[in-house]
Design brief:
Blueprint (H helix, E strand, L loop, with lengths): L7 H17 L4 H13 L7 E7 L2 E8 L6 E5 L10 H8 L4 E5 L18 H14 L5 E6 L2 H11 L4 E7 L10 H4 L19 H8 L1 H9 L2 H8 L17 H4 L21 H14 L2 H4 L5 H9 L7 E10 L14 H6 E9 L5 H4 L1 H14 L5
Parallel strand pairs: 3-4, 3-5, 5-6, 6-7, 7-8
Antiparallel strand pairs: 1-2, 2-4
Helix pairs in contact: 1-8, 2-11, 3-16, 4-5
Amino acid sequence: MNSKTSNPESKKGALIMSRRLVLAGMAGVVVAGQAGAALARHKGGSGLVGRKFSTPRHTTFYWEAGPARGPLMIFVHGWPELGLMWRAQVEFFAARGWHCVAPDMRGYGASSVPGKAEDYALSEIVQDMVELHDHFGGKPAVWVGHDLGSPVIGALAAHHSKRCRGLGLISVPYSPDAFALSSVLPLVDRTLYPADQYPDGQWDYYRFYLTNFDQAVADFDADVARSLSIIYRSGSPDSVGRAYRSAMITKNGGWFGTAHRAPDIQPDPAIWSAGDFDALVKAFRVTGFRPGNSWYLNDDANIAYARAAPDRGRIAQPVLFINGDWDGICDITRSHLGDPMREKCADLSITTLEGAHWLPLERAAETNQALENWLSAKGLKA
């Protein structure tokens, strides 16, 4: 889909980004190099080792831990994250004999940062994971995804089923018709979001990307540290049954209203450790939000890709979905958002945790235990 340009300053920002990529000689070289240097200075610790893998089409930076000959578990992050967000899960499962890998996805951290919106289509991202998987031998792996990482591994399982022993989806359920605005709108809870007041329900933020993309990027980039601080907040049961802030982005003129920048708020220590949050901020100061936000601009291509999957996207392997009971966007207990997943996953388990959207960070121990219990129940232990 085409986005509208509505902000002269954001046009200037886009031009600067474009010039940086052109001067690099190939998309993402300068950005990935600077972010890679920042991550290199931030030691993984606790056995995490940062490495890079390159093919002629893409470079992936990843964190790795655990025995090289152990069964493979690959953790795929979403927006606006890094492979480092999986620290608690990688350390937990590496200690139990798993060979754990947590990449920076394209557009993030020290991985390649292409300059065109269409470069962030799901088919391209899945191919990155196919190449990374081949790098580790290509034997069937357990894949774990959070947020937009869940559609990635769901599509990978649908198109490349032999690469998957099982899937752990966190926060965003599998959508066989692709994670696209037209796919999620029919599933909105219209009791909470009457169509005349909230035509796009909690997905209004998604609509805002499609209609005011440059402004959305510019607002986030205006103060990266503050933006990330306000994005990553702990959940509360008090939010249940109330319209979520993502439903009012268009009405408010953007995530941060007329201020066009995030308010001054301290990071939530319950989500990221101070050192890892600092690494996150440094990485986003290099890449900005444009690459990660561009994942939202490929609905038509992603729908076509989903419809090309064998067996209409049905997944036969064991699937675990971990739901956040206080997740204002993706909770599946009060909307129909999980219905397509229930229909297309032949062996589906669902666990609900008391938390919001950032479960691998906010509820790290509970997330680890849910995954461990599921792996044991399905005979997928190391």
